[in-house]
Design goal:
Strand order of the largest sheet: 3-2-1-4-5-7-6
Shape: globular
Number of helices: 11
Distance between the termini: 62 Å
Structural class: alpha/beta
Order of helices and strands: HHEHEHHEHEHEHHHEHE
Mean pLDDT: 93
Bound molecules: S-adenosylmethionine
Low-confidence stretches: 297-301
Strand content: 15-25%
CATH class: Alpha Beta
Number of strands: 7
CATH architecture: 3-Layer(aba) Sandwich
Largest sheet: 7 strands, mixed
Number of domains: 1
Length: about 300
């Protein structure tokens, strides 16, 4: 099929997917944070171990988790990452979300997750088990607020490491979230955010990963719903973190569009996206460091 025709086809089809996502959100609210069914425990464990490994890959080699306070933004259906951070010696883990998707998670699940994670010192792993058994402690916190007021939801804490996965692309205003998370970042802290930039709707995502970028803002926003991907690109995130005083701000791409789909995927994009040199990036990690007074990681207070 000629590329121009394919692009027109995908634009028309994509409108249907935008409508479906909007309708689904209206009917069910924000219910499925990832593709793993809540009943699929093995899938949930595999997903968490995979995400946790990805977050660790992006930590600077000299960054030691021991004694650190960790904040996860938007953990979705599980605080499993928190248990793993504790098992590696983190002093505390706190999670903040707008939707209460992990509030009723069974603490026994954390034990089974730890059974599948053999790293960390025995004493830290035992401490992680003990903390996770208690529904909510200062060392394993969870706060939900529809206003996503990170400072308020942090409940007086500050952090050495701030992470998220598949979350930033859903924020109404990433710049505001970045300003707010900066208020709870300790000098010398690290930020690692895995961000999925592509179209989220399943069928069309495989065939036209840049589909959401085909529409002018006014049309895209007609289908707005809470959590609709915000279409920010790596350069936008880099500029927002830099504006808040973060240093070493980088976006490391994980996957780019398959060469067989590339030309078709870059054709027919709406004005703010057409011709940008980062439109082949599907996902990746934003990493940044909040400068400390002495230029190193210091010790947790
Ligand atoms: C795709 S889920 C990812 C959840 C989890 N990190 C994971 O990997 O499964 C997106 C997360 O962003 C949160 N979220 C959605 N819309 C949001 C918004 N407008 N503002 C802040 N958080 C939002 C959801 O509650 C959810 O935790």
């Amino acid at each position: 099929m000629p590329l121009a025709l394919r692009s027109l086809d995908m634009t028309i089809l994509g409108l249907g997917f935008l409508g479906l996502a909007w309708g689904k959100s209206g009917l069910h609210g924000y219910a499925t944070p990832n593709r793993v069914a809540t009943s699929d425990e093995a899938g949930k464990i595999a997903y968490l171990l995979d995400i946790f490994a990805a977050l660790r890959r992006f930590m600077p080699p000299q960054f030691d988790l021991r004694g650190r306070d960790v904040l996860e933004l938007s953990p979705g259906a599980s605080r499993g990452n928190g248990v793993l951070f504790l098992a590696l010696g983190a002093r505390s883990y706190h999670a903040i979300d707008v939707f209460d998707l992990a509030g009723d998670e069974d603490p026994a699940f954390y034990e089974r997750l730890l059974d599948c994670f053999s790293e960390g010192r025995e004493a830290d792993r035992e401490r992680a088990r003990a903390i996770a058994r208690t529904a909510s402690t200062r060392e394993f916190g969870y706060a939900v607020g529809r206003d996503f007021d990170i400072s308020r939801l942090a409940q007086g804490r500050s952090f050495d490491l701030i992470v998220s996965c598949a979350a930033f692309e859903h924020y109404d205003s990433p710049a505001e979230a970045i300003a707010n998370l900066t208020r709870v970042a300790r000098p010398g802290s690290e930020s690692i955010h895995i961000i999925d930039l592509q179209t989220h709707s399943r069928w069309i995502r495989e065939r036209d990963p840049n589909n959401i970028y085909r529409y002018p803002e006014a049309i895209y926003r007609l289908f707005r719903f809470p959590g609709q991907p915000n279409r920010q690109r790596p350069a936008d995130y880099i500029s927002s973190f830099s504006a808040e005083g973060w240093s070493d701000v980088r976006f490391v791409p994980s996957r780019t569009i398959d060469p067989a789909l590339r030309e078709a995927s870059l054709r027919g994009l709406a004005a703010p996206f057409a011709g940008r040199d980062d439109m082949s990036i599907l996902d990746g990690a934003l990493t940044a460091r909040y400068p400390g007074p002495d230029g190193d990681w210091g010790m947790a207070s």
